[in-house]
Amino acid sequence: MAEPTKLLIVDDNEDILSTFYEFFNSMGYEVKTAIDGLVALKLLRDESLFFDCLITDLVMPNISGVGLISIVKKEYPHLKIIAMTGYGDQPGSLASEAQADVVLFKPVDLFKIEDKVSKLINPQNDNTED
Amino acid sequence: MSTPLIGVSKSILKIKELINHVANTCLNVLITGETGVGKEVVAQSLYAESNRNHKNFVKINCAALPETLLESELYGYEKGAFTGAHRKRPGKFQTADKGVLFLDEIGDMPLALQSKMLHVLQSGEFSPLGSDHELKTDVWVIAATNHNLEERIAQKNFREDLFYRLNIIKIDIPPLRKRKEDISPLIEYYLRLYKSEYPNNKGTKPDSDTFAKLCDYSWPGNVRQLQNCIKQQMVLNSWSKIFEELPKDPAENIPDIQTDGQENGTQPLEIDELADKRSILISEFVDLSTSSDKLFEDISLKKIKKIASDRVEKEVITFVLEKVGWNRSRAAKILKISYKTLLYKMTEFDIHPPVK
Question: What CATH number is associated with residue A10?
Answer without folding.
Answer: 3.40.50.2300
